Structure formats: C-alpha cells, structure tokens
Amino acid sequence: MRGSAIRYPLLNAIILGLAMLVSLPVAAFAHAAMVKSAPGKRAVLSQMPARIELCFNEAVEIKFSSVRIADRHETPLPLGELVTGSDPKCLEAAISPAGPGVYSVQYRVLSLDGHVIESSYEFTVKPALPAQQ
After folding, report:
1. Of 38, 89, 105, 118, which has the most beta carbons under 10 Å away?
2. pLDDT value at position 132?
3. What are phi and psi of 10, to 5 degrees?
4. What is the pLDDT of residue 28?
5. Which portions of the chain are predicted below pLDDT 50?
6. How far apart are CA 123 and CA 2, in angstroms?
7. What are the strands of the beta sheet with 60-70, ordered from one edge?
8. Nearest in space to 61 (alpha carbons), one of 125, 1, 116
9. Per-position DSSP letters for 72-122, written without gaps between them
C-alpha cells in the first residue's frame, strides 16, 4: 500500500485535479450584470426621461426585482409598475416628472441562476436655460 502513489501517478493526478476543481469558489460562475441603462450612468440630461430601462446580460426574475430613483435628499420618485421590456433581459418603468438635480438609481434583481445583484448609479437633470430674447 505504501508505494501505491508511485505506482499510479495518472490516478493520483486525476484525483488531485478533481479535488482542485471541486474547491473552486462558486463566485467564479457568471451572474447577471447590467449591460445598458437609459438614462445611462453619469448621463447629463436636459429633462427627466419618461421611462427608465435597465438591461442585463441574461434574463432576470421580475417578480423579485426592484428599482428605486431618489433625489439628492433620498426622496424617492414615484415610478410606474416595473415590467419586462421588449427584450426579456430588460426591465422598465415609467418615471414621474421631476425637476433638475442629481438622481440616484438603485436596483436589485434576481438572476435566473438564483443570485441577487444590487447596484446603483447616478444621472443628472440640468436646469433649463433661460429663453433668449
């Protein structure tokens, strides 16, 4: 028995390889990631858009997803119902009209692989320029 490691080097290499594969962290597998948003991250707009759209690299479970837009005082803007966009990888909702300022978008989605993804970004609505006379 003592010399079995020397007699079966291929078997030992396979066992060692399998042990290393099993010990890989689960985080190595991909999860949903946002690939597009409207308004975009750090966008500077002349008026508040009518809708927000967030698109991911894979479909997300809308039932367990949420989006929040808040002003710099953390006052949330009323949003319409969160719905699946024209692409099943996209979520969208109507945005209530609001004035100029910096707004933060916080989102939380459940990817189909069962992982929750949470993140945020900001966009700015500039004050309207006075009319030229």
Report:
1. 105
2. 67
3. -65, -45
4. 43
5. 21-28
6. 67
7. 44-45, 116-125, 101-111, 60-70
8. 116
9. TT-PBPPB---EE-SSTTEEEEEB----SEEEEEEEEEEETTS-EEEEEEE
**pTM higher than 0.70:** yes
Both structure tokens of 111: 């990817």
Local structure of residue 40 (DSSP, 8 states): P
With a pLDDT cut of 90, the percent of the chain lying above it is: 64
16: exposed, middle or buried (C-beta count within 10 Å: 0-12, 13-18, 19+)? exposed
Strands across the sheet containing 83-84? 34-38, 51-56, 90-94, 83-84
Please give the structure tokens belonging to residue 90.
Answer: 């996209």
Whose structure tokens read 């308004």?
39
Residue 27: the pLDDT is 42
Residue 131 DSSP class? P
Residue tagged 């119902």 (tokens): 81
SS3 133: coil
Tell me if 124 sits within 8 A of 98, measured CB to CB.
Answer: no
Element (H, E) at 44: strand 44-45
The whole-number pLDDT of residue 114 equals 86
